Amino acid sequence: MHVIKRDGRQERIMFDKITSRIQKLCYGLNAEFVDPTQITMKVIQGLYSGVTTVELDTLAAEITATLTTKHPDYAILAARIAVSNLHKETKKVFSEVMEDLYNYVNPLNGRHSPMVSKETLDIFLANKDRLNSAIIFDRDFSYNFFGFKTLERSYLLKINGKVAERPQHMLMRVSVGIHKEDIAAAIETYNLLSEKWFTHASPTLFNAGTNRPQLSSCFLLAMKDDSIEGIYDTLKQCALISKSAGGIGVAVSCIRATGSYIAGTNGNSNGLVPMLRVYNNTARYVDQGGNKRPGAFAMYLEPWHFDIFDFLELKKNTGKEEQRARDLFYALWIPDLFMKRVETNNDSSNSISLYSMLTLFKLRRNTEVKILNNSNKRHRPIGIGVQGLADAFILMRFPFESAEAQHLNTQIFETIYYAALESSCELAAEFGPYETYAGSPVSKGILQYDMWDKTPTDLWDWAALKEKIAKLVTTCMIHNFSKSVEDLEIKLTWENVLIHLIIVIKNNTHIKYKRIIYCAQYLNLCSEDERRS
């Protein structure tokens, strides 16, 4: 049998040469479990005469990935094989890759269809020596296989269906897209991203530096009006946001319930469910970023709505299909007054003064509000998330429900909150406060723990911080628990603060969490049968 090399030459397939290539990528891995010879034997079984070296590397990576259940180091080795293959198939010089992306011509219509913006390209080229030399391609080998394949599938820019970017190219594109001409800040951000100190949300990784620099993750909308025009205008907004990789929350309580009278047609409303099925199909059709990941629409309803029980059934796997909309996410938006009535066992109410009704009607009729990014610009909310809290507990050898774990958890989040508020105050000196800062709780020295009537630990000087931030902060919201499944895939930590034993990635690939396996092997609790199960 022979293999076709990348330059077109034919070469005889040699067992030892395949083994040697895999062996070179095994540095730092556990030699007791990782066996290059075993991988080569499985690869040879899948080869045919005339196979290309690209196909050979792809097969070797996929076979190695299937051995991950034996030991997590196989996932690292599989990624190294795949990354090595990508490096051989792509240009190395960052500025040249960005030029290729800008100069892209759509082969179907012959039109210039740049994938990076002219503004960003000019910055790339004006600073190409500095940017090119700052990139460290060895960091591409720090991903595991499932994280790398997630990047390859959804994040790395492609030309005619073929990946053109390397992971480090993407991170530098994102960094320059954020910081523009501030090259020092861009390189600092690049290093923090590539060393995995933090990661940006998916819309930023998708869009930074491109012609559609929409970097926000989340958009909150209220239904424009209880009318055909209002429903479909809001639907259009959702579609446009999803197109640019944004996730959406929509308040739908204003939509009239099933059986309600419709004056314009002298008929009766079909209620929420048929409308939500339309939104469900839009979320399926207009996926985020053009088939990069499914659309994410979360629908919010208050408990007084007549259709509340039908709303709560929409996600179920059983029942009539026309009464289900399973691709949406649902939230019950519960007013404080409702819960107070529950606590006192009193009747709920949904009354409002006539004066307030007139005021609301006038505002709705005469006031035009710019939606989309207006809220983000006014309030400047950010969401500093968290990954791998359970990892920290395991590394510290703290049982998840122990007092030590609870104390560490508290101090971690206190530190994030304190440092973020301090930085927000410092940034306000440059960017000013957010528009709605005056009169906000933080402007009065009221922090989150005050609202929840909690006392922080003595780890940080909160009194000094309150005095400092009473002058200015630049962001209204600091921290949140974000939806972060793809970050989990890229970094393979436990999602957010959650604890799982088995992670299910795309195509039903199961990954047993590596620290569980390491601990089991260390304690001699992991047999061959248990590794395969």
UniProtKB/TrEMBL annotation:
Family from the record: Belongs to the ribonucleoside diphosphate reductase large chain family.
Alphabetically ordered keywords of this record: ATP-binding, Deoxyribonucleotide synthesis, Nucleotide-binding, Oxidoreductase
GO cellular component terms given for this protein: ribonucleoside-diphosphate reductase complex
The enzyme's E.C. designation: 1.17.4.1
Transmembrane spans: none
Protein name from the UniProt record: Ribonucleoside-diphosphate reductase
Record keyword Oxidoreductase present: yes
InterPro entries: ATP-cone_dom, RNR_lg_C, RNR_lsu_N, RNR_R1-su_N, Rrm1
Record-level Gene Ontology MF annotations: ATP binding; ribonucleoside-diphosphate reductase activity, thioredoxin disulfide as acceptor
Reactions accelerated catalytically: a 2'-deoxyribonucleoside 5'-diphosphate + [thioredoxin]-disulfide + H2O = a ribonucleoside 5'-diphosphate + [thioredoxin]-dithiol
Highest taxon above the source species: Eukaryota
Source organism per UniProt: Sinocyclocheilus grahami (Dianchi golden-line fish)
Role of this protein: Provides the precursors necessary for DNA synthesis. Catalyzes the biosynthesis of deoxyribonucleotides from the corresponding ribonucleotides.
Domain ATP-cone stretches: 1-92
Swiss-Prot/TrEMBL GO biological process terms: deoxyribonucleotide biosynthetic process
Ranges in coiled-coil conformation: none
Pfam families hit by this protein: ATP-cone (PF03477), Ribonuc_red_lgC (PF02867), Ribonuc_red_lgN (PF00317)
Catalytic class of the enzyme: oxidoreductase
